Amino acid sequence: xxxxxxxxxxxxxxxxxxxxxxxxxxxxxxALGSKxxxxxxxxxxxxxxxxxxxxxxxxxxxxxxxxxxxxxPALMTIIIGVVIVVLGAFLFSRIKSIKKEDGLAxxxxxxxVSASTLAAAMSILEEHSMTYEAWAPALYPFMDIxxxxxxxxxxxxxxxxxxxxxxxESETPVTAWSIITDSLRSAAxxxxxxxxxxxxxxxxxxVFEGFYDPLFKGLLSILxxxxxxxxxxxxxxxxxxxxxxxxxxxxxxxxxxxxxxGLGYIAHVTVGFSPGGVVILSILAASSxxxxxxxxxxxxxxxxxxxxxxxxxxxxxxPIAIAVCIPLFIAMAEAVF
Length: 337
Description:
Blueprint: H1 2-13, H2 18-31, H3 40-64, H4 67-93, H5 100-111, H6 115-127, H7 140-165, H8 176-185, H9 187-201, H10 205-238, H11 244-271, H12 275-286, H13 293-300, H14 306-336
Helix pairs in contact: 1-14, 2-10, 3-9, 3-10, 4-5, 4-7, 4-11, 5-7, 5-14, 6-10, 6-12, 6-14, 7-8, 7-13, 10-14, 11-12, 11-14, 12-14
């Protein structure tokens, strides 16, 4: 009983984190009808700056890292992305009222990664003095790209068979290579990979310490406020589609995060992956893409309804991942390790 009580106290106290407070504050003022708006240019700048900070930090750490230690966590990350899509596809296929492509697009988006959720997790870990490998956030594309590829490939295979059965001509299929290149060219991954390259090959210590690092938490607060406001707005879209998407969005981040925590624990035992790294891996699994995923899925599965997958992710999935999963997995790590 004492263990459960201690866990509950740790979980509740983490809601005092500024990142979570700004997210909840954004949802509240939107619910109260506030006309406050954050210009999209500022939102995009904040995302760019956060990802550059994450990338540069990871690149600098990779210089001195043992690449062998990175192999197992990277493999675990790929497995998690694939498993999430397969599980989501299986679950949605059992619900006859849901279009197959809508279910696959939703599974793909939840298998992909949220840059904002990752940034929030890093900030909260730092507040709790929980260290992690600086290269751990660089695991982002190892989960993001396989999940999007698998979801789009499965959707196109299904649509091709459906069109063949109906005697229709299939549209030109989307190739795996085109999905990879589109993902790598997306704003989120481009900024992250650019930051990693600069941190790895250039002497970026001074610009990192003097510019990117000091602005991190301030820009994150703007991002969280914006996402809270958008999350509430997207609820209107989600009401228009099947309620099963809302149920999935409520449960999936926690279940996916537990998968990530379990595989992360195996990496901890096997190669000494840090407790903070296990939390990062769990949050990568719990998050759903809010920057790179939606445009990739719009292009790859054009027949899917964006209100289903974007509404489920933005209005419910991301708030659950940030407000519930981050405190949950930090508390679990403190209890387990």
